[in-house]
Amino acid sequence: MVAVDILKFPVSSPADTSPLEKLSVAGYDASQILAVIGKTEGNGCVNDFSRTLAAVVWESKIPKNAVTIFSGGTEGVLCPHVTFIVRSHDDAPTGLSAVVGHTKALAPDQLGTPEHAGEVAQTVTSLVKGLGVSPEQVQLVLIKCPLLTSERLETIRAQGKQPITNDTYESMAKSRYASAVGIAAALEEIAQTQVEEALKTEQPWSARASCSSGAELDDCHVFVLASDIKGLAQGHLRAVSKPMKDAIDAGVIIELLEQIKKEGGQVVQVFAKAEADPRGKIRGWRHTMNTDSDLHSTRHARAAVGGLIAGLVGNTQVYVSGGAEGQGPSGGGSLCIVYRVP
Amino acid sequence: MVAVDILKFPVSSPADTSPLEKLSVAGYDASQILAVIGKTEGNGCVNDFSRTLAAVVWESKIPKNAVTIFSGGTEGVLCPHVTFIVRSHDDAPTGLSAVVGHTKALAPDQLGTPEHAGEVAQTVTSLVKGLGVSPEQVQLVLIKCPLLTSERLETIRAQGKQPITNDTYESMAKSRYASAVGIAAALEEIAQTQVEEALKTEQPWSARASCSSGAELDDCHVFVLASDIKGLAQGHLRAVSKPMKDAIDAGVIIELLEQIKKEGGQVVQVFAKAEADPRGKIRGWRHTMNTDSDLHSTRHARAAVGGLIAGLVGNTQVYVSGGAEGQGPSGGGSLCIVYRVP
Amino acid sequence: MVAVDILKFPVSSPADTSPLEKLSVAGYDASQILAVIGKTEGNGCVNDFSRTLAAVVWESKIPKNAVTIFSGGTEGVLCPHVTFIVRSHDDAPTGLSAVVGHTKALAPDQLGTPEHAGEVAQTVTSLVKGLGVSPEQVQLVLIKCPLLTSERLETIRAQGKQPITNDTYESMAKSRYASAVGIAAALEEIAQTQVEEALKTEQPWSARASCSSGAELDDCHVFVLASDIKGLAQGHLRAVSKPMKDAIDAGVIIELLEQIKKEGGQVVQVFAKAEADPRGKIRGWRHTMNTDSDLHSTRHARAAVGGLIAGLVGNTQVYVSGGAEGQGPSGGGSLCIVYRVP
Amino acid sequence: MVAVDILKFPVSSPADTSPLEKLSVAGYDASQILAVIGKTEGNGCVNDFSRTLAAVVWESKIPKNAVTIFSGGTEGVLCPHVTFIVRSHDDAPTGLSAVVGHTKALAPDQLGTPEHAGEVAQTVTSLVKGLGVSPEQVQLVLIKCPLLTSERLETIRAQGKQPITNDTYESMAKSRYASAVGIAAALEEIAQTQVEEALKTEQPWSARASCSSGAELDDCHVFVLASDIKGLAQGHLRAVSKPMKDAIDAGVIIELLEQIKKEGGQVVQVFAKAEADPRGKIRGWRHTMNTDSDLHSTRHARAAVGGLIAGLVGNTQVYVSGGAEGQGPSGGGSLCIVYRVP
């Protein structure tokens, strides 16, 4: 059980590590950092070097066993920022507990396959156990996972193997889905035996998974957040999660915000996934995110869902990540709100 | 006084005129059309040929004195659609009245200048008068105005004159602002004598202007919508307007929606303008819409504000247009909701 | 045998049909038009409405049995223009002969399949026969073929069938490849029996195919151009073709231009296909066209190859089309030059 | 006089510093590096973090007084790579000499102004003098200069000052032009007294300037390359320069290549600038680079001119940079070829 606090700060560029000073002012030392979770201002797709830049500048400044998870894309109103997950002082209970880890490195040809999902499932299972919570207490599993670049595709072909896809952008989706299925298995939302089938049908999903792909790593960075929302928790922090049914599901956001309000709480951070409904429609009305060849659908989705969430919480420093394959119902996305209670 | 009804239908492409059949099923004839106001799925910028395509296919199917106003850009969740403004049967009062018209053609070098604003002011003033309403009863003035293409820039230079800007994309903003200032003058939100000064300081704005630029025309298409919101109106339709203060101003949308709910009303259509705050920040938090060289800020703004509005009204067929220079306060945008009462 | 002349004119927008007047000045009547082949200034991808706009405005102005082939994308230096293929006066021999036609409409689920290729093969074979030339005299087969939109994908799924791909942009490539294989079979570059296998291995290619996809049609528009390059031809026009080996194959262009120069010829038009090498490298050096998530690879390829060809022929009104799957060797593209001899 | 060698190597990403190992294999030590000049694979515009990433990873690995110049954008066929300028062993003459330096930091409101140009002029003049060559022996002055981000714009406004432009993308052009004018003055292509006037008329240009803007610095990085092309030079390297008249000026490239061939030379590297003709036409034919709101004109220009140059030299590792304001004639761009003689 690792009790954690959570703080967020805006950044002036992906290379900006000045939030470390603000963290210090807030009374925390860099050595207490478990995770740096950031939104950087690139395109959030294959050639998003804002993520790599952030990873490069941050990784030298945080503990070796801490993880970075940078999600690209601050379309629309979103503000580039970092969220710190830090150990509480003297491990005093805060109401939130967290743990971080890595899978082993995935070979390029494993990306998006049952091996990938299995590796994630095993790592998350072991982290949850180590945290000493039950799967249903976990409110969020955040994963940064690899993608296939042209070079990695060539490596696979040179070995006479088949990549999961020849399209670098599509490899991001395949990687996210395999990670989400691994999380679903670890959180017992699906059975371990369903993993292989899931990767074929692409139907099963986790309500608490949030996965983001990047070229800047070859393993998966994993962050697990748990909250005892039953009210027994000590401390001043809580997390609650419930997926959005579609990209305009203001209803579920308002529902959670009202519940938080009833508890006298204040929103600290929102972690949401967004996607263009693959059927090309939202509640029966056509959208154009899947036929816009100038702008990838993940960029559209972040902008739209980011606008909705930022409007409802009155804050643009929210973590909205694009591409919700297996992370919430199709066309919707997982949603987790961390809040402070009196 | 022309009493009007309002109907909206999705389109399958910018070339889709099948909503005419649905209009007919709803009991209206094409000859009753005053205006076709559409959202088309292009980039909403200089080279948006979806607007031109829609204009070409629609203009042969509607009365000569009707106008088309196509606004490009259905980023995020937005659904391409058309809104018909039609004369009511036998001119029976509906609660809404409307009138349409054109300015004279603007010479390329007049675009964005006091002449442009003056021409708009004169046309709108005359239309409002003809409608028989007072300026404060006007809830929305929608204008489609020209922009400068490379060819028009060359024409200006060949005449030894100076264009308002050499940047084709920026010319859209200049055109929208001059149109908005003209509306503000006509609606007595600013004095006629302030027009010239306004174009210098770029400060004054109208709360009920909605302007959109396009390469497909060289005059301005004007649509004026009035509603007697004092409750004296007969008929089942109402319009109400109040600008958004910034791009995440969910508050004002919720306020209007609650007012409508109190009246037992149901939203028919929303007309909103959106823009990237030119100061680079929203409520003090940095946004990246003005430094994203891959994606123009108007596309970002439409996606974000479109996501917020569609979420709150539960409908993606809303008219959200990008570039709100002088159309609502800086960083915000005008907002008009048309609704049906029992 | 239909003897044809060829003329090209710039356009000021996709809606510009004023070249008809120039055609008239050049002594030709619209009734002599066999084909209007144009480059329009959209993105050349799924949501390129510049193509549809051009098709709409042109199709009402040309003979019923003439075809339009609009290829989107004039990236870089390329000039939007139209090329007319017109019957010569009194069918006087010109050195070039041509014929146009259509396949039957393809069902959405047939796109990219052996049925699609077979349909093309049959149509081209029959057109070549009708033209009275041998397959090896054919210098160019230009095809405009359909793609899968979100709506067409839904139609397929609603029928319980599988589309060739779920990605609208990728469907363009699948459609081009099936068309190219059909051409290869008709020109006897591959055996008819190899068609099905070709669509699996995606290896075989035609040296004289040029295929372009669009949402604006559901059949294939076909244009066949033949030239007797053996020197026996009467008339003042010739066509020669030889594929580019890669996207920087200046050598083959220079070789053809020198051959033309030797004959005292002058280039009238160039028809070229361009693509990003799918292996991610050109002559061993990495390119970034397949990992650029802001800009589709076909746009990159048109810009680069267009720059090379326009530079070498000293003219930017050239037909360079993106996506050369099966149209020339992998990473290269077919190339056909039409020229005038004394 | 600093005799230099020049070597180039491809990179696998902007973070790839493995060329250092290849440099070592080639017999050079990192301590001999004067400049690292790279093409990185971002958009080359305001939010190109590939440049910043490259600067971050390289600056810790090269001597303190060496400079980095990273130009973003490898559109089309271009290969991301780095070019090393290294001191020759024991300062043995190579035929090429070079020197690097910095201007002082420019305040945001100085960007694009006569102060900016003056500061560049002074720095380049002093570097040329220090190099011990005459201005006409200088074949290339390469500059990396700052741009205005939203934050820098806010800083200026907060001080009650006026930025040169409110548009972050346009600030790149303004910065390049002021740098180019400074170079022109230092190389005596224009008089020092013409600087202020030049910034107003935007007419004068330098034939040997190559300037590139970036958010990653606030001073200008300067690299000066001289060659004694009169044949008196010892050593095996030469540089020659002559600007392209327009973006399809294959003629001048072929002319230089033939001259090099006559000397038995082999091309080592090409440094070229490219731009969209601001008049909207090339040799009278319309181009669409200035009206494409999806893709900035500098990206178009790099792709097209990169395709032409790479085709003619048969190598995609060439330095083609976009935005040639004042760097060669309007619509064209400066061009410098470094080659090896027997």
Automatic annotation (TrEMBL), chains A, B, C, D:
<dbReference type="InterPro" id="IPR043008">
    <property type="entry name" value="AtzD/Barbiturase_RUA"/>
</dbReference>
<comment type="function">
    <text>Responsible for the hydrolysis of cyanuric acid, an intermediate formed during catabolism of s-triazine based compounds in herbicides such as atrazine and polymers such as melamine. Catalyzes the hydrolytic opening of the s-triazine ring of cyanuric acid (2,4,6-trihydroxy-s-triazine) to yield carbon dioxide and carboxybiuret, which spontaneously decarboxylates to biuret.</text>
</comment>
<comment type="similarity">
    <text>Belongs to the cyclic amide hydrolase (CyAH) family.</text>
</comment>
<feature type="binding site">
    <location>
        <position position="329"/>
    </location>
    <ligand>
        <name>Mg(2+)</name>
    </ligand>
</feature>
<feature type="binding site">
    <location>
        <position position="324"/>
    </location>
    <ligand>
        <name>Mg(2+)</name>
    </ligand>
</feature>
<feature type="binding site">
    <location>
        <begin position="71"/>
        <end position="72"/>
    </location>
    <ligand>
        <name>substrate</name>
    </ligand>
</feature>
<dbReference type="Pfam" id="PF09663">
    <property type="entry name" value="Amido_AtzD_TrzD"/>
</dbReference>
<feature type="active site" description="Nucleophile">
    <location>
        <position position="212"/>
    </location>
</feature>
<feature type="binding site">
    <location>
        <position position="275"/>
    </location>
    <ligand>
        <name>Mg(2+)</name>
    </ligand>
</feature>
<protein>
    <recommendedName>
        <fullName>Cyanuric acid amidohydrolase</fullName>
        <ecNumber>3.5.2.15</ecNumber>
    </recommendedName>
</protein>
<feature type="site" description="Important for substrate specificity">
    <location>
        <position position="298"/>
    </location>
</feature>
<keyword id="KW-0378">Hydrolase</keyword>
<dbReference type="InterPro" id="IPR014086">
    <property type="entry name" value="AtzD/Barbiturase"/>
</dbReference>
<keyword id="KW-0460">Magnesium</keyword>
<comment type="subunit">
    <text>Homotetramer.</text>
</comment>
<feature type="binding site">
    <location>
        <position position="327"/>
    </location>
    <ligand>
        <name>Mg(2+)</name>
    </ligand>
</feature>
<feature type="binding site">
    <location>
        <position position="51"/>
    </location>
    <ligand>
        <name>substrate</name>
    </ligand>
</feature>
<feature type="binding site">
    <location>
        <position position="302"/>
    </location>
    <ligand>
        <name>substrate</name>
    </ligand>
</feature>
<feature type="binding site">
    <location>
        <begin position="321"/>
        <end position="322"/>
    </location>
    <ligand>
        <name>substrate</name>
    </ligand>
</feature>
<dbReference type="InterPro" id="IPR043007">
    <property type="entry name" value="AtzD/Barbiturase_RUC"/>
</dbReference>
<feature type="active site">
    <location>
        <position position="144"/>
    </location>
</feature>
<feature type="binding site">
    <location>
        <position position="176"/>
    </location>
    <ligand>
        <name>substrate</name>
    </ligand>
</feature>
<comment type="pathway">
    <text>Xenobiotic degradation; atrazine degradation; biuret from cyanurate: step 1/1.</text>
</comment>
<feature type="region of interest" description="RU C">
    <location>
        <begin position="237"/>
        <end position="342"/>
    </location>
</feature>
<feature type="region of interest" description="RU A">
    <location>
        <begin position="1"/>
        <end position="91"/>
    </location>
</feature>
<feature type="binding site">
    <location>
        <position position="332"/>
    </location>
    <ligand>
        <name>Mg(2+)</name>
    </ligand>
</feature>
<keyword id="KW-0479">Metal-binding</keyword>
<feature type="binding site">
    <location>
        <position position="328"/>
    </location>
    <ligand>
        <name>Mg(2+)</name>
    </ligand>
</feature>
<dbReference type="InterPro" id="IPR043006">
    <property type="entry name" value="AtzD/Barbiturase_RUB"/>
</dbReference>
<feature type="binding site">
    <location>
        <begin position="212"/>
        <end position="213"/>
    </location>
    <ligand>
        <name>substrate</name>
    </ligand>
</feature>
